[in-house]
Each structure stands twice: as C-alpha cells, then as structure tokens.
C-alpha cells in the first residue's frame, strides 16, 4: 500500500511509509583442515568482542561425511577442548542422514530444533552445520526459525555445496511433492569451505558440482568456460588444483550475483543463474532423487544448449564444445527420464515446464546464453525444439560407449 491510494470519503486513513536499509555481509573462506587446532579460521569466525563466557555451539553433521571420516567427531571434540575458553559444545554433535532424505520431511527439522531447545541455545547460540547441500538446507532452515534465527556457520563438504548450495542465502526442505517448497532466505554468519573433505566424495558427488560451474560460466564468464573445457579431463581425474580453482571461481560468480544483482532475495520473476534448471528439477524428481542434482543440471544444460543453438544464441560449434566438455568431465548429457511420458502420452518434462511456470509465479523466464559467457532472457520455450533436442541428445549421446567415442572425435577436430 502506498500513500497515494485514494480512500473513499469518511473512511479512516493512516499510512506510515516505512523504509530502512541494512547492510548484509558474511565471509566465505577457503581452507583445509578446518578442525586442526592450528587452523585459526573457525575460531576467528566465532570470537566476539568482550565475550563474557564461552559461546554455546551446536554442531549438526552429515552422516555420509562421518561414515567416510570416522576420526572427524573426535577431531571436533578436540578442537572444542582446545578452544574451551571461547566456545563450548552445547551437546554432542547431532548426526543427521545425508542426501535428499534429510530434506524430505519435517522430522529432521523437529529433531534439530528440539536439540537446540534441549541444549538451551539462546539468541547468541551458534549452529555449525557440516555436510552436503541437503544437510545444510535443512540445518539452515532449522537455525533460521529457532528463536527467529540464531547464528549459522556453514561448513560445506561436497563440491556442489562449496561452490553453490552452501555459500548463498537460501535454505529449505521439500514438501507437497515440490523441491524447497518450505524455506527461508537467511544469511549465514560465515561459510568455511574445507577442500580436504572432497577426498572422500563418490565420483558422482565430486563431479556434480562441476555442472554448476558450467551453468554459471556459460551465462556469465567465457574465460571460465574455456578453463573448464581445457581442464575437463583433469577435473574428471580429481586433480586438486583444477577442482579448487573451479570451486573458487564458481563461488565468486555466485557471490557476485548475490551482492550486486539487486535481487538477492529473488523477488523478481526470473532465476537469473538457473540455466538448465527447469528440466533438471523435473529429472531429479522423476528419478526419485537417484540422479544427483549436478548430473541433472548437466543434462538440463545440454538440452537448453540445443535450444540456444536452434535460436541462434550459440553456434553449432559452441554446442559441440559444451557437450564435449561436459562429457569429458564425466557428466551426463542424456537421461532416460527425458523420454518418460505420463498416462496421456505427454512427455513428463513438458509437465516440468508447467511446474516451473507455477514456481516462478510471474512471467515465464528462462535464462539462456547469448554467445558463451553472456546472458539473455527468453519468455517462451518452443516445445517442438525441446522435443527435437531430446531426440538429438538421445540419438547422438544416448549410450556411454558412444559418448566417449564421439567426444574423442570432437576433441580431435
Ligand atoms: N540453498 C541453495 O541455495 C541450494 C543451491 C543449490 C542446491 N541446493 C540443494 O543442495 C542439495 C544437493 O547438495 P549436494 O550436491 O551437496 O548433495 P547432498 O547434500 O545430497 O550430499 C550427497 C551425498 O554426499 C554425502 N557427503 C557429504 N559430504 C561428504 C564427504 N565429504 N564425503 C563423503 N560423502 C559426503 C552425503 O551424506 C550424501 O549422501 C539439493 O537438495 C539441492 O536442492 C541448495
Ligand atoms: Zn543447481
């Protein structure tokens, strides 16, 4: 309501136009061995001036991570013992299942908020969430609603969480068959990316985050795309220098968007970074989440890149380069879920387009490349082109053996 509204005579009318600004900031750090007592990053993040007593901290941790790193809980307890003057564990670290299951019901949010309450965390308490993007989304949501928001430090432990899911301002859980249907925008106090955790990831979860790097490079940064293309085989081989540069450059592009787009809390009707995501979300759902988000995004990028070529936004040579680079990294460009139909014979992915429209709420908007590294928005998706794209991906890249032969051919061109 603004104060220019005309009111009928005789009705009471008072409008106090309220406007205020607050500046937001938080550090995103890159390190190794975060729980080594000689590494100062975490304790520096938690220290506050003139602290009367040790701060109460609760740790929420991903069981996929603790299973692969059996010494981790011990390292955490030693780290707290070492810094006991400044911080204390409010309770034993609370372990949650990792992966999408932790977001699929309210149960874990109830467990998390109950643990915070039992541990008597007050408004100055801190939650340290350690794990993949799914755990961080659930833990972040729980921290955001407990006492209307207590401090949250995220320690992302997958590639995708370190370069995308864990560094931004969103959280959420899945409800009513929709991803992230319940959630908030909530800023962390800090994010600490520890590259050491990547060593125990499965290949799927290691490489999944690289798809997000392609996503943002293709619409924002041509030189970053060239870097990914040039280093695709090194990335597939889990080369530490290549993955660390990929994560950091990708994180910088995401953070730059949050800080400078003017729409950090996504009030507009577009998702300016979500290239390839409209179909990716549907593919993930259709697979019952057996397909990782990053893998689904890779397929979504391949599909939208076909459309971009058909719309003359990129050249055929550029389409081939994108697909070859994804495949050389070990990412998929085809999924059987693209071809699934509903009972009326309609492609499920077309239903995904409708769901995307509903999710955006406003005008249907797709982010597309305008040449590699530049972005443009389209407000329509010609489904005939999408169908052709699906057939193209299936016929050309539909089985793994063929993929590698064709990639080889493209590389040799
Ligand atoms: N909030 C956001 O802005 C945002 C952005 C993008 C994606 N997301 C969400 O992120 C989630 C995907 O996150 P993800 O790709 O990190 O996967 P994930 O959280 O599903 O984790 C994948 C698997 O890896 C395990 N794991 C985590 N760290 C490990 C480690 N270091 N070693 C071994 N195993 C480890 C987990 O237990 C899990 O089984 C999705 O739910 C997606 O919706 C959120
Ligand atoms: Zn994504």
Please report the distance between the alpha carbons of the first and last residues. 61 Å
Structural class: alpha/beta
Small-molecule binders here are: nicotinamide-adenine-dinucleotide, zinc ion
Helix content class:
40-55%
CATH architecture of the largest domain: Up-down Bundle
Say which CATH homologous superfamily of the largest domain is assigned: Dehydroquinate synthase-like - alpha domain
- Main sheet attributes: strand count, strand direction, barrel closure: 7 strands, parallel
CATH topology of the largest domain: Dehydroquinate synthase-like, alpha domain
- Work out the helix count: 16
* Gyration radius, rounded: 23 Å
Please report the first level of CATH classification, the CATH class of the largest domain.
Answer: Mainly Alpha
DSSP strand count = 11
Q: Write down the secondary-structure element order.
A: EHEHHEEHEHEHEEEHHHHHHHHEEHH
In the predicted model, the low-confidence regions spanning at least 5 consecutive residues are 404-413
Kindly give the count of domains: 2
Shape: globular
Beta-strand percentage?
A: 5-15%
How would you state the average pLDDT, rounded?
92
């Amino acid at each position: 309501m603004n104060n220019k509204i005309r009111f009928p005579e005789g009705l009471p009318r008072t409008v106090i136009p309220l406007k205020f600004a607050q500046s937001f900031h938080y550090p995103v750090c890159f390190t190794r061995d975060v729980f080594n007592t000689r590494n100062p990053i975490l304790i520096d993040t938690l220290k506050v001036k003139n602290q009367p007593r040790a701060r109460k901290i609760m740790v929420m941790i991903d069981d996929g991570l603790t299973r692969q790193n059996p010494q981790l809980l011990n390292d955490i307890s030693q780290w707290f013992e070492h810094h006991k003057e400044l911080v204390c564990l409010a309770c034993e670290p609370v372990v949650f299942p990792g992966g999408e299951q932790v977001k699929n019901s309210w149960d874990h949010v109830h467990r998390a908020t109950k643990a915070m309450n039992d541990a008597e965390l007050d408004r100055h308490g801190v939650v340290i969430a350690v794990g993949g993007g799914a755990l961080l989304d659930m833990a972040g949501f729980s921290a955001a609603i407990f006492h209307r928001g207590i401090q949250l430090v995220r320690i992302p432990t997958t590639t995708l969480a370190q370069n995308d899911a864990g560094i931004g301002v969103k959280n959420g859980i899945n409800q009513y068959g929709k991803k992230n249907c319940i959630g908030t925008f909530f800023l962390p106090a800090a994010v600490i990316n520890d590259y050491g955790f990547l060593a125990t990831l499965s290949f799927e979860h290691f490489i999944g985050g690289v798809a997000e790097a392609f996503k943002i490079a293709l619409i924002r940064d041509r030189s970053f795309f060239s870097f990914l293309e040039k280093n695709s085989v090194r990335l597939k081989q889990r080369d530490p220098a290549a993955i660390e540069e990929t994560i950091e450059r990708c994180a910088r592009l995401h953070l730059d968007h949050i800080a400078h787009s003017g729409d950090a809390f996504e009030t507009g009707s577009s998702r300016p970074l979500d290239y390839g995501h409209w179909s990716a979300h549907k593919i993930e759902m259709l697979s019952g989440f057996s397909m990782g988000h990053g893998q689904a995004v890779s397929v979504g990028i391949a599909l939208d890149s076909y459309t971009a070529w058909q719309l003359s936004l990129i050249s055929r040579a550029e389409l081939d380069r994108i697909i070859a680079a994804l495949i050389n990294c070990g990412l998929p460009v085809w999924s059987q879920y693209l071809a699934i139909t509903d009972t009326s014979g309609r492609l499920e992915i077309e239903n995904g387009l409708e769901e995307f429209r509903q999710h955006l709420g406003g005008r249907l908007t797709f982010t597309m490349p305008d040449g590699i590294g530049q972005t443009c928005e389209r407000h329509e998706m010609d489904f005939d082109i999408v169908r052709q794209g699906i057939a193209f991906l299936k016929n050309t890249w539909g089985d793994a053996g063929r993929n590698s032969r064709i990639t080889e051919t493209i590389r040799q061109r």
